[in-house]
Design brief:
single chain; 234 residues; alpha/beta; Carbamate kinase; 9-stranded mixed sheet; two-stranded antiparallel sheet; 8 helices; 11 strands; 38% helix
Amino acid sequence: MNYKRILLKLSGEALMGEKGHGIDPLVVISIADQVKAIQKLGVEVGLVIGGGNIFRGVAGATKGMDRVTADHMGMLATMINALALQDALEQKGVPTRVMSGIDVPKVAESYIRRRAMRHMEKGRVVIFGAGTGNPYFSTDTAAALRANEIAAEVVMKATNVDGIYTADPKQDPTATKFDRISFQEVMERNLKVMDAAAIALCRDNRLPILVFDMMKPGNLLAAVNGQVVGTIVN
């Protein structure tokens, strides 16, 4: 295997499938199947999930809502998604822990770095909810932060396209795909792989980012096995 410990970043929108909002149980089951396949091989998995299928703090703030309040609502939305994914994984026999950046002791453990790493060493999938626990920071930044804290070897960002392109391939048929690209070029081209804070955090700590299409069955397994999937940023 190419990777032994990974941080998988999922968007909240990925969970809604074709529904347009909320959570599509079939999508959650598909994600759980793919995570189970790599966990069975001994890959240690941390997972950060967004909440955009339920509520986006930035969107709320643009409509006049207080930004801090909106971001806290977004954090709670990520916890709903984290619990849904935990349930799907545990129904498939995968031991899982949800760790939250904000204190919600009735439903999840509070995030403690050493405890998270211990869970992963014991073969448990750790789902990091509530982002960083702070307003003004996206779940992309949370993924970069948690990945560095737990000494992950890569951030795997699951998207609905098969890598990074010079432009949006759905809008520009002439867009070409990168197999590999530097952090500097991502920032200079403003390619929107992740937000600037996340890119800078990974760049400064030499943590590669793999952008790939997880909706294609088998891609996650192929990626952890070192096959060429998506685009690597390093």
